[in-house]
Amino acid sequence: MNGVKSSVAVNQHSCHVRNGSITEGRQKEVISPEDINRGILPDTTAPVSSRMQELLEGLNEPGDCGNPIEPPSWLDRQLFNRGRDFYHRYLFCMSFSEVLALVFMLSMMRALRPLMYTGRSDSPRKALRRYFSTFQHVTAWHEGDVWDPADRAHKDLLSVRAIHNRLSGVFNSSKEHDRVWNTKIQDKGHEEPACPFYHTIREDLKDQAGDGLPLEGPDNPPFFISQWDMSLTQYQFMGLVVAHPHKMGAGAATDEDLEGLVHFWRGLGWLLGVDDKYNFCRGSLAEVRSLCLEVERLVGIPALAKADWNYEHMTLSLVTGLSHLMHTLSFEAGFRYVAYTLDLDIPNFISRMSMQGTIKYWLMRFAIGLLYYFPGLVIRLSRMLRVATAVFQKRYANGMNERGGSKTGELYPVTTPFTY
Questions:
Q1: Which one of 22, 150, 193, 318 is separated from 158 by 20 to 30 angstroms, measured CA to CA?
Q2: Per-residue pLDDT for 84 more than 50?
Q3: Structural domain for 234, as ranges
Q4: Residue 398: is its pLDDT beyond 70?
Q5: Which stretches are transmembrane (predicted)?
Q6: Higher confidence at residue 260 or residue 12?
Q7: Is residue 95 part of a domain?
Q8: Please, which pLDDT band fits residue 399 given cuts at 50, 70 and 90?
């Protein structure tokens, strides 16, 4: 997008604020334990928090603010490493939550349309290759030392940051912006089937979602890969675990563990170019948890209630592809688990589920429930996931390269909040 177009978008968003869609001066509310377990805000009709207002100011700010690669003054190395250790021990839970976050947040058009436009994840095979690469990125970041310039993890993270900048320039250019924003999955040859699920999703959620926040519209086009988008990327990687630890299999984690996870992603956000003002993980555990729940209620769920064939096809491709690694995954089971996590009532969707989808959903519930009573299992499951992914990488790497995948050792970018 050119500079004039960007400034217009900024001014239009400011009008949203002045017209009262966003109430100023609201203090951060601390969510009660009961509401945390239910996954809801105490008053879903309340104005947005001051912290959310702050994040919204980044809607039209470029995603890389130019942070230096040196550690910021607020970095607590001990707490950061505690987050790395948590990620290592709870890798199974983190991976599970990241997949569910995609099922949830792919409904956001400002994130989904660039994915459709690039055409690199609109089939199960392509989606598997793309999101498996994302897994490799994040694994490298928590297993290496991102603060050491000589470490592979540091170099990999900075390469992702550079790719973000390049893609932002492409998507926001005067030549490509309108094409990206107006793309549809039918343009890629994926016609809508006779009985899709998205009509059912809309029917179930129409009275539970609300209007949501006015993030973009015909007269207020999005700035792709903005500070806001990068902030939601952080939510996608840690938000469900922080806001709903029991439902993600991390019920045995302590507050200190989760504080480490939050600080870990605050540090990664800094290195990816997220201004600390817009860093989703800035603040105490209670504040970040409240922000997670607020994003879910005021951004994610309203977007999900407007699901269409674009969302359903891309999510179906994602989950079908990843089911080669996590065999209990399916679109039906994954969506129902998201609804369970967010305390959403979806009777019509459940009535349409296949027997196989229902069985997979209850297998998820059973497995995650076991982790609460037998927390030692999560270490074994995380180890099994590492072995499975190593086998997968070795088995399919050459085939991917032959079919036009990445060169050996080259990974796809982790972007906002998904991979393009």
A1: 318
A2: yes
A3: 3-402
A4: no
A5: 87-106, 362-382
A6: 260
A7: yes
A8: low
Whether residue 36 is predicted with pLDDT greater than 70 in this model: the reply is no
Q: What is the mean pLDDT of the chain?
A: 85
Amino acid identity of residue 25, one-letter, is: G
- Beta-bridge partner residues of 387: none
Share of the chain above pLDDT 90, in %: 70
Say how many domains are in the chain. 1
In a domain, 416, yes or no: no
Sequence-distant (≥ 6) Cβ neighbours of residue 93 within 8 angstroms: 241, 248, 249, 250, 371, 378, 382
Tell me, letter by letter, the H, E, C secondary structure of the chain.
CCHHHHHHHHHHHHHHHHCCCCCCCCCCCCCCHHHHHHCCCCCCCCCCCHHHHHHHCCCCCECCCCCCCCCCCCCCHHHHHHHHHHHHHCHHHHHHHHHHHHHHHCCCHHHHHHHHHHCCCCCHHHHHHHHHHHHHHHHHHHHCCCCCCCCHHHHHHHHHHHHHHHHHHHHCCCCCHHHHHCCCHHHHCCCCCCCCCHHHHHHHHCCCCCCCCCCCECCECCCCCEHHHHHHHHHHHHHHHHHCCHHHCCCCCCHHHHHHHHHHHHHHHHHCCCCCCCCCCCCCHHHHHHHHHHHHHHHHHHHHCCCCHHHHHHHHHHHHHHCCCCCCCCHHHHHHHHHHHCCCCCHHHHHHCCHHHHHHHHHHHHHHHHHHHCCHHHHHHHHHHHHHHHHHHHHHHHHHHHCCCCCCCCCCCCCCCCCC
pLDDT in tens, 235-247: 999 999 999 999 9
Spatial contact of 420 and 167, defined as CB atoms under 8 Å apart: yes
CA distances from 68 to 49, 65, 272 (A): 29, 9, 10
Residue (of 247, 399, 275, 235) closest to 337 by Cα position = 247
pLDDT of residue 389: 85
Structural domain includes residue 297:
yes
pLDDT band at 367 (very low <50, low <70, confident <90, very high): very high
End-to-end Cα separation, the chain, in angstroms: 18
